[in-house]
Structure to design on (146 residues):
């Protein structure tokens, strides 16, 4: 079951950043957020906004494309996965995927659809759709699988 909660149009990178910053306090320790959308849609910008909203230095936030995960210390910490270059889900087990999902922190996963069957039964799906060069539609849904 998927429950659609919110659909927003962002007109700039600054609006996407501000949206994520405002939403950050809505997420709690142990929650998983999956970011879906094409390259350049604003997924990493969104993670920077989450970091800001959680009081984490957003200058630390970069896409972990080659190492799969970056950890940003905070209260709670932010675990930032990017699965764009994932070639085999075994790679996730090698870096402690299950441990990350059970740690006290907020887990954000870019390209999470590449490991869809490894996602928890409950997560937030934030989907970015490019409208034009500056506008994106950002759809936020709570996904609960039985």
């Amino acid at each position: 079951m998927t429950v659609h909660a919110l659909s927003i149009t962002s007109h700039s990178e600054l609006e996407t950043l501000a949206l994520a910053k405002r939403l950050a306090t809505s997420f709690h320790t142990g929650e998983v957020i999956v970011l879906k959308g094409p390259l350049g849609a604003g997924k990493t910008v969104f993670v920077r906004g989450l970091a800001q909203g959680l009081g984490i230095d957003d200058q630390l936030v970069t896409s972990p494309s080659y190492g799969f995960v970056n950890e940003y210390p905070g209260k709670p910490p932010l675990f930032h996965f990017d699965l764009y270059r994932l070639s085999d889900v075994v790679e996730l087990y090698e870096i402690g995927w299950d441990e990350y999902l059970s740690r006290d922190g907020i887990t954000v996963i870019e390209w999470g659809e590449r490991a869809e069957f490894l996602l928890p039964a409950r997560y937030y799906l934030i989907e970015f759709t490019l409208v034009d060069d500056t506008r994106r539609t950002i759809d936020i849904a709570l996904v609960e699988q039985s």
